[in-house]
Amino acid sequence: MSVQEYLDKHLLSRRIEDAVNAAVRSKISDPVLFISNHMRKAVPSVITKVKARQILDSRGMPTVEVDLHTNKGMFRASSPSGVSSGMYEAIDLRDGEKGTYLGNGVNRAVNNINEKISVALVGMDPTLQSQIDQVMIDLDKAENKSELGANAILAVSIAACKAGAAEKEVPLHKHIADLSGQTSLLLPVPVFTLISGGKHAGNNLAIQEIMILPVGSKTFEEALQMGSETYHHLKAVITETYGAHGCNVGEDGGFTPNISSLRDGLDLVQKAIGKTGYNEKIKIAVGVSATEFCIGTKYDLDFKTPNKSGQNFKSGQDMIDMYKELCADYPIVSIEDPFDKEDWEHVKYFSGLGLCQVVGDDLLMSNPKRIERAIQENACNALLLKVNQIGTVTEAIEVVKMAKDAQWGVVISQRSGETEDSFISDLSVGLATSQIKAGAPCRGERLAKYNQLLRIEEELGDQAVYISEKWRN
């Protein structure tokens, strides 16, 4: 669109005249500022520029950051990434040049934004999120977004969402609620990582993480306090038992004591909870990530211990028996990925026992087709949503609706490679999900999410509703 076409389309000559007349009538002391503000409200905002760059995430690996410009200003967003990607999720585009960032550079994705996506989006209304996302999906053409890169598409999608909120002059979480048709805003229960294992840590613990949910708190602020206090009590417990070196942290900020037994980790967390005095107000969750140690149809809980690996294989039934015992002995209310991503038989059986929330992560990969199958087969009862696995805000909203229609829980999740972007906090509130998993109450990229939820709760004031003990509803 040419400058003259833009002027004609929006009747700018008439609007400028109206603004000048309004300034005269108001007898304002600063007519230039008045006219400027008047015009900003009178003229619909459009995307004027999209500029991307390569930055580093919390693991020191490259990722994509985008500055999206409209008449209202500049809106920045970045894309997170995980340790590994599965065949059913959207694909980050990497450069593959081994001499630069070990092949993990994202200059190709950046160039796709600057040279292709920006051209397609300039002139679009930032409030039309679904149209913006569809333009990028159509431009990519690949089902897994591998042509332009999910990292490129997601960063632009999030930036556009922020711009849309600014155009409507509403908070980001309110704009997201409007996009999804959600009528209520809810503060989620935080799922704090306390102990890290699996691929996220250098210890011998096979399972990926032990977490806590402060379900007995009355506000999000109180939940964050509970999480922080428990975390620091755990640090003291680990130091006493394993020495200060046991308090090194993994990629999500969880402590990494050199334990190999899940029970040892649960005992440490239980002891820390006891020291806080909160006891019944705090429940435990376990992120197993069983795909990482599944070999054929067997599970090797000693896969990180070279001299023991392969000596203690467990069958799917053995794993079920183990989970039953753990749920009986500890206040475990949620287990994530208890079996391999293709072990539908055992996950269906275990979910049917009704012992706890069963969360699908690798099982689902935020993929609509996998989610639909899991719903039909009752394979789990909660979705772990990682926005970079699906690639756009619109598609994230759609899968959350699928999960809610099936009466599932929804956990909005971070990635191991995070940035300072706190978008998932607003996403969780706007979509009224019951839980948010943003790592430990430690490390800036994790706390950015939790601190944003504090701000949202404060901003909502008397209208703030914390999900608390109804977190599974």
TrEMBL record:
GO terms for molecular function: magnesium ion binding; phosphopyruvate hydratase activity. Pfam families: Enolase_C, Enolase_N. The keyword Electron transport does not apply. Residues 47-176 form the Enolase N-terminal domain. The keyword Metal-binding applies. SUPFAM superfamilies: Enolase C-terminal domain-like (SSF51604), Enolase N-terminal domain-like (SSF54826). Residues 184-473 form the Enolase C-terminal TIM barrel domain. Pathway: Carbohydrate degradation; glycolysis; pyruvate from D-glyceraldehyde 3-phosphate: step 4/5. Keywords: Glycolysis, Lyase, Magnesium, Metal-binding. Its cofactor is Mg(2+). Mg(2+) binds at residues 302, 336, 361. Its EC number is 4.2.1.11. GO terms for cellular component: phosphopyruvate hydratase complex. Substrate binds at residues 200, 209, 336, 361, 413-416, 437. Mg(2+) is required for catalysis and for stabilizing the dimer. Transmembrane segments: none annotated. GO terms for biological process: glycolytic process. PROSITE patterns: ENOLASE. The active site is at residues 252, 386. Belongs to the enolase family. This is phosphopyruvate hydratase. The lineage of its organism: Eukaryota, Viridiplantae, Streptophyta, Embryophyta, Tracheophyta.
